[in-house]
Structure formats: structure tokens, C-alpha cells
Design a protein that fits this description.
By secondary structure, the protein is α+β, with helices and mostly antiparallel strands. The protein has one domain: Nuclear Transport Factor 2, Chain: A, CATH 3.10.450. The protein contains 2 helices and 5 strands, in the order βαββββα. Strands 1-2-3-4-5 form a 5-stranded antiparallel beta sheet. A hairpin with a 4-residue loop joins strand 2 and strand 3. It is globular and about 70 Å long. The termini are far apart.
Length: about 140
């Protein structure tokens, strides 16, 4: 019996964080999210948690972080991170997302919700950030 071999299809390597459609305005925040300016302490906490999620992959570098606040006080954040190894080789920029709250003791607790480490989850992380108007 004859067999049919189909070619393997690879997922394209898309830099979704840089995607801008000409003629369309930058997305506005979702109705339940208001723009929020992170404090230095909050930014440091986010960077620490994202670095922990990337442990063993090199020194993280951050870019273009944006945040919003929900009606219940949850702070949502999205941004870009790459890592640099010991040979000074950088990875491509990857999108991350997460949320946090200021606890009763005043400390900001952040949890990484998404990190675009693979092509398969890059779209999911981008969509989560876009849905909240943070990219």
C-alpha cells in the first residue's frame, strides 16, 4: 500500500511584542483596568520575580514595562526581558505578564503569570497583555 509523507510544519518565530499595525492606534486599557505608574519598589519586586522564573538562563535585562490597576487593587504588569550569558550573548526579547498586590504589611507581592519562553506560549502571553491594554 502506498504511503503519503507530509512535510513538517514549524511554528514561525514571531516577535509579537513589536507588532504594530499601521493606521491603528495603540490599544487602550480595558474598561476594568486603569493605567498605573509602578513605584521603584514595585518595579524591583517584578524584576526579582521574573529573574527567579528565568533562573539559570543568564543575567536578565528589562525593557518596556507597563502596568494597570483593577478595581479591586490588583496591579497587572507586562514587559520585555532578555538574558545575557557569560559569553555576553543575549537572547531575544521575551514578553512576560503577571499580577501583584500590596499586602497588609505594605510589601508588594508579585506573581509571574506568563513568560514567552517558547513560540507556543508567546501568543498566549501577548494576548493576555493585550486584553488588558498593556501592550
Amino acid at each position: 500500500m502506498p504511503s503519503l509523507e507530509l512535510p513538517t510544519v514549524a511554528m514561525p518565530d514571531l516577535d509579537l511584542a513589536a507588532l504594530r499595525i499601521p493606521g491603528y492606534p495603540r490599544p487602550q486599557t480595558a474598561p476594568d483596568v486603569t493605567p498605573y505608574r509602578l513605584t521603584g519598589e514595585q518595579t524591583a519586586a517584578i524584576k526579582l520575580k521574573v529573574a527567579d522564573a528565568l533562573s539559570g538562563q543568564g543575567t536578565p535585562q528589562f525593557s518596556r514595562m507597563s502596568a494597570g490597576r483593577t478595581a479591586d487593587g490588583t496591579i497587572l504588569a507586562c514587559g520585555l526581558v532578555n538574558t545575557v550569558d557569560g559569553m555576553n550573548q543575549a537572547t531575544r526579547w521575551r514578553l512576560f505578564s503577571g499580577s501583584g498586590r500590596v499586602g497588609p504589611d505594605g510589601a508588594f507581592e508579585f506573581q509571574v503569570k506568563g513568560l514567552a519562553l517558547s513560540k507556543q506560549n508567546a501568543l498566549a502571553v501577548f494576548s493576555a497583555c493585550q486584553d488588558k491594554g498593556l501592550v
